[in-house]
Each structure stands twice: as structure tokens, then as C-alpha cells.
């Protein structure tokens, strides 16, 4: 028997884990992407590292963190982070760098400085790509956060693993359904924020 | 932070032995030019001849390897680039409007960065839009993709005028427009130029445009300035074959009296024709979609006249038929003599006419264009 309290408390743990990881990954990815824009060499290193982290299977990343950091909440955050960085870095970088050159030329020609070009031209043009990256990163974070229950992160994964071990379908669903709802809810919220930020300038 | 007003008026612009190399190739080779305040100087030449590079050196988008550029005797290399550029209007062929900003935001951006208050920006933007014949209430809140090419180019000009710069740099501003639209904008630009009273440096590859708009024309070839002078000087005293071929001196002997309208016709494309029963609202959207500034109004059997997009936009009653707002223009047969037709048009102040072939509309005649082709 799964109690409602147990579902709610696991959902709350899960939410803390995924939201915190998302915020940290945005905070790390954005400066790396901006840095890559202004320094080719730095960008090369960042992309290589992020691609590498992405190439390792999710479950292997989760396992690899254990010998380095042990088990628990924070090792889980690090494991998830490693996978979530790439989509945000890559999309942000692509969004910022693929701006129509005539627009940049014009911005330069009317006397915008480097910071103003970033703020008024590059960034608004990159919003759609950045949001796509963040949404994709969240899907990864949400699903890997299930796996990290294996190394003691808590959250909805715990219910699922308990259910799997005990052949308890009810428990599996009690873990899986809230996880799916979180994914959907997040997508809706972020699409709203995106619409707010980007005016309807394209049909 | 407001940047310094570097010059209220232009007394002179001097290029002294300006040279720029990319690897081993000269982009500009030892170019010296004196430009007076209030002049409109046109740079023309084959692509790669250095005309755009020269233009872009004046606002330091490109910096010379050697030589100096002086504006009012101040070396541009000693001026702060951001301040310099905010004191110079800049218009480019691709316009470079920011798609995520409304027209008002596009025009007012630099004023906002200069710390103007919202009211002042709004007033200035309104004034500029009206100045370039775009009714401000209609256009301020639109996005660039909702505008036709000609309207976008007008916004480009309004944007360049924002800070009331005494100097304008224009890099093939009409180059991307279709021929009829280009003529229309050249015509408008020619008229507002007087009101502007600015020094203008203008790059083009179109010699007719150069003859029509320029006070002096600078011909560039292979990174060098070949000759600079008025249209007459270039036509009658070209320094070499290359200049002669650009200004096509052979044509000056062509006798106007022998030319017929069909020699100088601008052919009609069917997208220009709109039925007279169309209401104004649909005509406007059709014209914007087709990217045309004028439309021929037809009653099924023949043309009634024309309507201009800028006039339609100003109409109060958007439900009325365009047939009721037609401007009549003369029409001539394609075999009539050019000289007599031009005389009639000049007398009545018409800037365009229909050309008919067997009672059917087949094209337009633009006197200014015809004239510049004849002298060019």
C-alpha cells in the first residue's frame, strides 16, 4: 500500500532535486556559452568536454560518481549536472552565434558596444534556442533523477525501485506518474515564460 | 550614457593616402579625396573595387593600415568609435532591422542607449516615420517582417536619422529592391535630400542612380580612385576607357528625337495590376505582400490609373473601393516619340505614364529614368 503522504514527500524530494539541478546547470552553462562566444579556444575546450560528458551513458555517469563522491543527494546532483550541461551550452552558443551578420554589422555601425550587441541583438535572437536547450535539459534531468535514487538521492526513483524489487505495480506507478506530470508541467511553464520573453515576431 | 556630440555640421571630410591591405591584396590603395560639407558624393565601381571599404573606414568599421581620414580636421582614429558612429547615420543594403523589436524600438534604440526619456524617443520616432512617409500610428508597433521591402528601407533611413547626424553613410540602400520600387524610392530620396541638408556618402553599382542623386561621382577600380567629378565631367572628359565604359559616353550622341517610347519602357509585371472593385484594406495587404509601392488599378478592360501604397495607408475609409481613389496618369502608345511624350508629362507634372501596346497596358514610362538613360 502506498500512502498519499509518501507520494507527496517523494515528489517534493524529487522536485527539490530536479529544480536545484536545473538552476545550477543553467548557472554553469550560460557563462560557459557566453565565454565560448568571445574566445574560440575556450569554446573548443568547453564543447569537447560537454560532448564527452554527453557520450557516457546516463547510468554509467551515475555509477561513476560513487567512487569519487560517495552516495547521497549531492553526488546525485553532480551526476545529473554532467548530463544536463551540454544541451544548454550547445543551444545557447548556437543561438548567440548564429545571428544574421548584417544585423551585427548594423549594430556595430550605429555605435552599439560589445555588451549592448549581446544584450539587445544576440540574446533576444537566441531565446528560442536557449529555451529549447533548457527544456531538453530538464527532460534529461527529470529522467536521470529517477536513476539517481539508486545512489541515494531520494525522490520518485526510490518508489519506482522499491516497486521493481517487490514486484509492486502500484508503487512503480506511484513513482512514474508524478514524474511524468512534472515533465509535462515544466514544459508548459517554460513555454509560457518563453512566450512572455519573445514577442510574436515570427508567424 | 549620452555620447559626445562630435560635430554639428560637416565642413570637410578628407581622405589622405588611405591604404588597406588584406594579406597581399589591396582593398584600398592610396586613396585621397576631399569632400565638402553638404555634398552628396557617390562611390561607384565594380564589386571588389574598394567602394564599400572606403565608406566603412569613415565610421571606423574598418581601420586603415596607413593614411588618415579627417572629419572637420579631426582624425577619426583619435575619436572614440562608439561616439563617432552615433554621430554618423548608417544605412545598408540589407537594412539590418532587428526582427525581435517593433519598428519604434528599432528606430529608437540608440536614443534609449543615450538615455533619452520615453516621451522624447516616441516623439522623435513619430516625427521620423512621418518624415519617410510611413504613417506613424500604423507602423510604430509593427514588426519588421510585417513590412514590405520598400517600407523596411524607409525605416532604415528613419533609423539612420534618429540622432540627427550631419553625415550619412549609405551603402547601396536601394540595391536589393526591384527596379520600379527602386525608382520610386530614389525619387523620394531625391526630394527629401533637400530637406535633410546633410553631407551624404553613398555607394552604388547603378550608374543611373549615381547620375540621378549625386553631386559628384567617384569612380573606383581595383582599389584605386580613378576619377571624381560631376556627371558632365565624367561623361565629357573621362580619364580612361574604364570610366568611359561605366558612364557609357557613347550614348551621349544618341539623339533624343529618334527615340521612341518602346526603347525606354519599363515592362509591366502582372502583380502590379489590381481590380478597381477591391477595397482599400485588401489592396494594402496585397501590395505589402507583393512588396510593391504602387498598383495599377484596372476595370477589367483597361487601366484606370494608379494608387500609391502610402496614400492608401493614409485613407480614413478603408472599406471604399480603390477605383474611387485612382490617380490618373497619361498613357502613350509604345510607338510614339519619346521627346513629345516627355514634354507632355513635364508640362502636367506627371512622374510616370502608362505605355500601351494595341490598346493593352504593357509597361511604364518614367521620365527621370528615361532621361538619365539618354544622358548616361
UniProtKB/TrEMBL annotation, chain A:
Any one GO biological process: transmembrane transport
Location in the cell: Cell membrane; Membrane
Topological type in the membrane: Multi-pass membrane protein
Membrane spanning residue stretches: 15-38, 58-82, 129-152, 172-193
Coiled coil residues, start to end: none
Keywords annotated in UniProt: Membrane, Transmembrane, Transmembrane helix, Transport
InterPro entries reported in the protein's UniProt record: ABC_transp_perm/SBD, MetI-like, MetI-like_sf
Domain called ABC transmembrane type-1: residue spans: 11-190
Pfam families: BPD_transp_1
Superkingdom classification of source: Archaea
GO cellular component: plasma membrane
Database matches in CDD domains: TM_PBP2 (cd06261)
Chief location bin: membrane
Family label: Belongs to the binding-protein-dependent transport system permease family.
This protein's name: Osmoprotectant transport system permease protein
Organism: Methanococcoides alaskense
Taxonomic placement: Archaea, Methanobacteriati, Methanobacteriota, Stenosarchaea group, Methanomicrobia
TrEMBL record, chain B:
Cell compartment(s), UniProt: Cell membrane
A single Gene Ontology CC term: plasma membrane
Family matches, as Pfam families: ABC_tran, CBS
Protein EC: 7.3.2.6
Keyword line: Amino-acid biosynthesis, ATP-binding, Methionine biosynthesis, Molybdenum, Nucleotide-binding, Repeat, Transport
SMART domains membership: AAA (SM00382)
InterPro entries (alphabetical): AAA+_ATPase (IPR003593), ABC_transporter-like_ATP-bd (IPR003439), ABC_transporter-like_CS (IPR017871), CBS_dom (IPR000644), CBS_dom_sf (IPR046342), Gly-betaine_transp_ATP-bd (IPR005892), P-loop_NTPase (IPR027417)
Enzyme class: translocase
Purpose of the protein: Part of the ABC transporter complex WtpABC involved in molybdate/tungstate import. Responsible for energy coupling to the transport system.
NCBIfam families, per database record: proV
Assembly and interaction partners: The complex is composed of two ATP-binding proteins (WtpC), two transmembrane proteins (WtpB) and a solute-binding protein (WtpA).
Protein name: Molybdate/tungstate import ATP-binding protein WtpC
Amino acid at each position: 500500500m502506498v500512502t498519499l503522504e509518501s507520494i507527496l514527500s517523494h515528489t517534493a524530494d524529487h522536485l527539490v532535486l530536479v529544480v536545484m539541478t536545473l538552476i545550477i546547470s543553467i548557472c554553469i552553462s550560460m557563462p560557459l556559452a557566453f565565454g565560448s562566444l568571445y574566445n574560440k579556444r575556450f569554446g573548443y575546450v568547453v564543447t569537447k568536454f560537454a560532448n564527452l560528458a554527453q557520450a557516457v551513458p546516463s547510468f554509467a555517469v551515475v555509477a561513476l560518481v560513487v567512487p569519487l563522491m560517495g552516495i547521497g543527494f549531492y553526488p546525485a546532483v553532480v551526476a545529473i549536472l554532467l548530463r544536463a550541461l551540454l544541451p544548454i551550452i550547445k543551444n545557447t552558443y548556437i543561438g548567440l552565434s548564429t545571428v544574421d551578420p548584417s544585423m551585427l554589422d548594423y549594430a556595430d555601425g550605429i555605435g552599439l558596444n560589445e555588451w549592448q550587441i549581446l544584450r539587445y541583438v544576440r540574446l533576444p535572437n537566441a531565446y528560442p534556442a536557449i529555451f529549447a536547450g533548457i527544456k531538453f535539459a530538464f527532460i534529461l534531468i527529470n529522467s536521470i533523477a529517477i536513476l539517481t535514487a539508486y545512489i541515494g538521492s531520494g525522490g520518485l526513483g526510490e518508489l519506482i525501485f522499491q516497486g521493481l524489487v517487490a514486484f509492486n505495480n502500484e508503487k512503480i506507478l506511484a513513482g512514474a506518474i508524478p514524474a511524468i506530470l512534472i515533465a509535462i508541467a515544466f514544459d508548459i511553464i517554460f513555454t509560457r515564460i518563453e512566450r512572455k520573453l519573445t514577442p510574436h515576431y515570427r508567424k | 550614457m549620452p555620447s559626445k556630440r562630435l560635430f554639428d555640421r560637416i565642413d570637410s571630410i578628407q581622405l589622405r593616402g588611405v591604404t588597406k591591405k588584406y594579406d597581399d591584396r589591396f582593398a584600398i590603395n592610396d586613396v585621397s579625396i576631399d569632400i565638402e560639407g553638404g555634398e552628396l558624393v557617390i562611390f561607384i565601381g565594380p564589386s571588389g573595387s574598394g567602394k564599400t571599404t572606403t565608406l566603412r573606414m569613415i565610421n571606423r568599421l574598418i581601420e586603415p593600415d596607413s593614411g588618415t581620414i579627417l572629419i572637420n580636421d579631426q582624425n577619426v582614429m583619435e575619436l572614440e568609435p562608439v561616439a563617432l558612429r552615433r554621430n554618423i547615420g548608417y544605412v545598408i543594403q540589407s537594412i539590418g532591422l532587428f526582427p525581435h523589436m517593433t519598428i519604434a524600438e528599432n528606430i529608437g534604440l540608440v536614443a534609449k542607449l543615450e538615455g533619452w526619456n520615453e516621451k522624447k524617443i516616441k516623439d522623435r520616432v513619430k516625427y521620423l516615420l512621418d518624415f519617410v512617409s510611413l504613417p506613424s500610428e500604423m507602423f510604430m508597433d509593427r514588426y519588421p517582417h510585417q513590412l514590405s521591402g520598400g517600407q523596411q528601407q524607409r525605416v532604415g533611413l528613419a533609423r539612420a536619422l534618429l540622432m540627427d547626424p550631419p553625415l550619412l553613410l549609405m551603402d547601396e540602400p536601394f540595391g536589393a529592391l526591384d527596379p520600379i520600387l527602386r525608382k520610386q524610392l530614389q525619387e523620394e530620396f531625391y526630394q527629401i535630400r533637400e530637406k535633410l541638408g546633410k553631407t551624404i556618402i553613398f555607394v552604388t553599382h547603378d550608374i543611373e542612380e549615381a547620375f540621378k542623386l549625386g553631386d559628384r561621382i567617384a569612380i573606383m577600380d581595383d582599389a584605386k580612385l580613378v576619377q571624381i567629378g560631376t556627371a558632365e565631367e565624367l561623361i565629357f572628359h573621362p580619364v580612361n576607357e574604364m570610366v568611359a565604359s561605366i558612364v557609357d559616353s557613347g550614348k551621349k550622341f544618341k539623339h533624343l528625337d529618334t527615340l521612341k517610347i518602346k526603347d525606354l519602357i519599363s515592362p509591366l509585371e502582372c502583380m502590379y495590376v489590381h481590380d478597381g472593385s477591391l477595397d482599400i484594406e485588401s489592396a494594402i495587404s496585397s501590395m505589402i505582400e507583393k512588396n510593391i509601392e504602387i498598383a495599377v488599378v484596372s476595370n477589367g478592360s483597361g487601366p484606370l490609373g494608379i494608387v500609391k501604397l502610402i496614400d492608401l495607408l493614409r485613407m480614413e475609409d478603408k472599406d471604399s473601393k480603390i477605383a474611387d481613389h485612382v490617380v490618373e496618369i497619361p498613357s502613350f502608345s509604345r510607338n510614339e516619340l519619346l521627346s513629345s511624350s516627355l514634354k507632355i508629362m513635364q508640362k502636367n507634372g506627371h512622374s510616370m505614364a502608362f505605355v500601351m501596346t494595341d490598346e493593352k497596358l504593357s509597361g511604364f514610362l518614367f521620365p527621370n529614368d528615361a532621361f538619365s538613360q539618354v544622358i548616361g
